[in-house]
From TrEMBL:
Residues 3-204 form the ABC transporter domain. GO terms for molecular function: ATP binding. The keyword ATP-binding applies. It comes from Niabella yanshanensis. PANTHER family: ABC TRANSPORTER ATP-BINDING PROTEIN ALBC-RELATED. Keywords: ATP-binding, Nucleotide-binding, Transport. The lineage of its organism: Bacteria, Pseudomonadati, Bacteroidota, Chitinophagia, Chitinophagales. This is ATP-binding cassette domain-containing protein.
Amino acid sequence: MTIQLHNAGKRYNRDWIFRNLNYTFQCGKHYAITGPNGSGKSTLLQVLSGAVSVNEGSCSHSLKNAAISPEKIFSYTSLCAPYLELVEEFTLTEFLTFHQSFKPFVGGMTVNAVIDAVHLAHARHKKINEYSSGMKQRVKLAQCILSDTPLVLLDEPCTNLDTAGIELYNQLIKTYCSGRLAVVSSNDIAEYGFCEEVLDITRFK
Ligand SMILES: Nc1ncnc2c1ncn2[C@@H]1O[C@H](COP(=O)(O)OP(=O)(O)OP(=O)(O)O)[C@@H](O)[C@H]1O
């Protein structure tokens, strides 16, 4: 996946969040979007996900030089973000089985293998609404990083994780993100230390 922003600008009401953004997110590379609270990191990530459109300029997605139409972007994209809800009435096994029915896992991984990869085997039959916040974050990471998509978007991915959880996150990135375009919105080097490129959103005000 390659994403090209050409003179891209996004505003909410009268406030421009970013403007004149010319940037190419190259296939297979890893990027961080940094900037203070409220500067527009999550907004840019939502634009990259195709969920939010720009107000001026363009944001175009392509795969192996073939353009992806805006309504298809979601099927090539995985997103982990604090504002995304899990289906908490489901057990983990039910939730991942449901998820797999429309987005398969990398390398044909089974639901049980995905659960093992984030060390939640002991809780596989527990309803997600009974999980701790760190356990829920591991579910979000599994759902995002282990889905077989060329684009991985991570918004504050280590939210609620302890030291072991952060180590797990880094291991998942190393094992499953090579060759995929990954973009992390964060100000924490522990979350984006693996990225080759850092984009400071405040440059585009
Ligand atoms: N749906 C919306 N409607 C109106 N304004 C919005 C909306 N979403 C975000 N904003 C505004 O856009 C600006 C950028 O918000 P955004 O969440 O992208 O920042 P951020 O850099 O990710 O912040 P943080 O580090 O706090 O997560 C903020 O001023 C916010 O109030």
